[in-house]
Amino acid sequence: MKITWKKHSKVNNKKRSLAAISNLPFEDEEEQPTVYVEAKAAEEEGEFRGGKTLDSSCGPSTQQLADSFQAQGDKLAEDGKYREALGKWENALTMMPGKAVLHEQKAQVLLEIGDAWNALKAATRATELEPSWAEAWITLGRAQLNFGEPDIAIESFERALAIKPDSEEAQDDRKSALHLVKRRKQLRLSGLSDTENRFVVGDKTESS
What's the half-sphere exposure (Cβ side, CA atoms, 13 Å) at 155? Predict the structure, then answer.
């Protein structure tokens, strides 16, 4: 059972300087015209955040276009249309590559569709951009679990708990990771392969 995608809102809304990310596969300038064509269509349908459309004479700003794509992606993800949501978020990231919440949401959806490696990269980027955001560390820990790195995942969950000690998600996921580490040790001692028992985020573990 995989995790359920959920839209995380950051508790800490303090503005901070975010560094731009480069060399992402969706940062191809040749694709930019398509982005703006889609944005124009969204404008005509009144799909910009807050239900407002822009004056076509002045054209939409980069921020407004990115917000539009993010809102569209959020709705698609809520409807379970994960690949379509990824496309919208990648369009937004082309214009706002330093927006941590987009990387974190992208990581969640990549976990939903079973792409642990790219989820790991997206979640890592989110923690780099917003190191004080607990939910980003939780998502990173889950990606690390799915990628087969429970020891590192424990560290990520502990980072989340250092920021947000009352996080039940981080507490539960840390317990799951600790259980998996113990289980792997038992498997190795018994001579069995631990790769046949890959942990999937959301699995329930039995208390020992």
Answer: 5
pLDDT-derived band at 82 (thresholds 50, 70, 90) equals very high
3-state secondary structure of 140: helix
* Residue 102 in tokens: 């987009």
Residue with tokens 């690949």: 83
Q: In a 3-state reduction of DSSP, which class is residue 178?
A: helix
> In sequence order, which residues have a C-beta less than 8 Å from that of residue 8 and are 6 or more positions away?
101, 104, 105, 135, 136, 139
Nearest partner of 139 among 6, 37, 1, judged by Cα: 6
Residue type, 25: P
| Helix, strand, or coil (residue 13) | coil
Q: What is the pLDDT of residues 53-69, one digit of tens each?
A: 344 444 578 899 999 99
Mean pLDDT, rounded, for 81-95: 95
Helix or strand run (H / E) with residue 32: helix 32-44
pTM: 0.66
CB atoms within 10 A of CB 193: 8
**In 3D, which of 97, 116, 132 has the Cα closest to residue 15?**
132
180-192 confidence digits (pLDDT tens): 999 888 888 887 6
Question: What is the mean predicted confidence (pLDDT) over 181-207?
Answer: 66
Measured from the Cβ of residue 38, the count of other Cβ atoms closer than 10 Å reads 17
